[in-house]
């Protein structure tokens, strides 16, 4: 589900000088983008189809680890392995960036997840979700579980390490790359969230591709399952 935000723009013309464009951004959106009041921001107009990946920022690695390992309880060795492969990194705003790759390993987009106090998620501008996906591990395996997000895919792989876990970047019943996986002879399970939307999209996917089996998480999503298991182990 995409969120919509209203922004007001005002153009002021100064005599003998270039006109200036002022943008009024809602406070919660400005906080998510880490924009301060009165801060000058440089904007760049891009074509809708042009992929623009966030710039990596090594100094934000600790913020990435703090969020994914300490809050989401993902195993640190796996997080570090994903960062070393380039499939995961932190950008200058300390957002987690999960790369989508096509069949040739080329980036075609990225899932973005805020790691700060304001929870938000999105996609890098120009991402082409129908051309590729985030995957753990990157190499093919015969058994594949489809998840709604990159964090869920990582969590699911921790719980089912023999499976390749992919993110569909949202609950989508028929990504363009899905028939290729089926043609390769992969055994697929749909592990969308255990909510009305996730299960409706899972049933729609199975209706289109009857060989796909249903495999919902025991709780709302795979990260919830992982954190619940970690809590049981720590208390035991």
Which terms summarize this structure?
Dna Topoisomerase Vi A Subunit, Chain: A, domain 2; 11 strands; alpha/beta; four-stranded antiparallel β-sheet
Tell me what the structure shows:
The model has no long low-confidence stretch (mean pLDDT 88). Strand 5 (107-113) and strand 6 form a beta hairpin. The chain has a single domain, classed as Dna Topoisomerase Vi A Subunit, Chain: A, domain 2 (3-Layer(aba) Sandwich). 30% of the residues lie in helices and 20% in strands. 30% of the residues are buried. The chain has helices at residues 27-32, 61-71, 76-85, 150-159, 178-183, 196-208, 222-235, and strands spanning 8-12, 20-24, 88-90, 96-101, 107-113, 121-123, 134-136, 143-147, 164-167, 187-190, 213-214. The chain starts with 7 loop residues before the first strand and ends with a helix. It has 236 residues and is of the alpha/beta class.
Topology:
Blueprint: E1 8-12, E2 20-24, H1 27-32, H2 61-71, H3 76-85, E3 88-90, E4 96-101, E5 107-113, E6 121-123, E7 134-136, E8 143-147, H4 150-159, E9 164-167, H5 178-183, E10 187-190, H6 196-208, E11 213-214, H7 222-235
Parallel strand pairs: 8-9, 8-10, 10-11
Antiparallel strand pairs: 1-2, 3-4, 4-5, 5-6, 7-9
Let me know the number of strands. Answer: 11
Oligomer: single chain
**Could you say how many structural domains there are in total?**
1
Strand content: 15-25%
**Percent range for helical residues?**
25-40%
Give the biggest sheet: 5 strands, mixed
- Strands side by side in the biggest sheet: 7-9-8-10-11
Question: For the record, what CATH class applies?
Answer: Alpha Beta
Radius of gyration: 20 Å
Question: Please, how many helices?
Answer: 7
Calculate the mean pLDDT score and round it. Answer: 88
N-to-C SSE series? Answer: EEHHHEEEEEEHEHEHEH
Category by helix and strand content: alpha/beta
- What is the molecular shape? globular
Just name the CATH architecture.
Answer: 3-Layer(aba) Sandwich
At CATH level 3, the topology is Dna Topoisomerase Vi A Subunit, Chain: A, domain 2
Any low-confidence stretches, pLDDT <50, length ≥5?
none
Distance between the termini: 38 Å
